[in-house]
Design brief:
By secondary structure, the chain is α/β, with parallel strands linked by helices. The two termini are 34 Å apart.
Amino acid sequence: MAQGTGVRLAEGDLAPDAPLLHIRGESMSISTEAARSAPSVASHQAARLTAVDVVLSAPAGTVHALRDVDLDVHAASSLAVTGASGSGKSTLLSVLALVRRPTSGGVAVDGHETSGLDRSELVSLRSSRVGTVFQSFHLEGSLSAVQNVMLPWYFKHGRTARRTAKERALGVLDLLGGVHLADRRPTDMCEEDRQRVAIARALVLDPALVLADEPATSLDRDAADSVAELLLAVPRLTGAAVVMVTARSCVTAAADRVVELDSGRIVSARAVPARLMPALD
């Protein structure tokens, strides 16, 4: 187990045997040939942080939210982030989400270095390559599930190619076992299904990186387990990387890798021994 400042999470063996979902053109299809080439997919970095520091201003003075953080997040893998309250977990996700610029250090998402990008370029990269799953779902109550999942498409492409957007949305819902929810509004769903729809929305633009900050906090234990299993299956279903902040030991045991933060530093990084991937049924 690596200790100390600046631990870089190293790539391990990852050979997914489940199909990868590819969203191209006007349809969504499962490519088993792509699945057979998964090791080359896994070698691609969905994100990289290099010597990242985040210093925040506070009434009592400056706060070092992140200190000299080095982190590689590989495609088609899951990463659990742990640590006590105030250790820097949410700040880490905000940097990966391109919502917060670091005070110093480098950030790359899907091979794109971000230090030289202006605000509009950051927004464009974030909207196309980063998906976010929120604790509180943030679903629009007046829209159906499929319309909620279509929203990122409209924000990026406008209301053109509506058929393509709907096919993508239905395809992702089907992949996650939620196509039966397509015409329901959030008020007609249980919380677990709302989060299922929220995960589908995060995937509809085929992101390289999916971020989730304790996404099952508001759910009961069984529903929380189901949502965690769904998120941990995403890398094998889509080839995206999933980074999930969690305090649940069952999630850290099931993720491909785990990092622990303390006072803004990565104090440990480890690969989880080979285990069965969670089932979606």
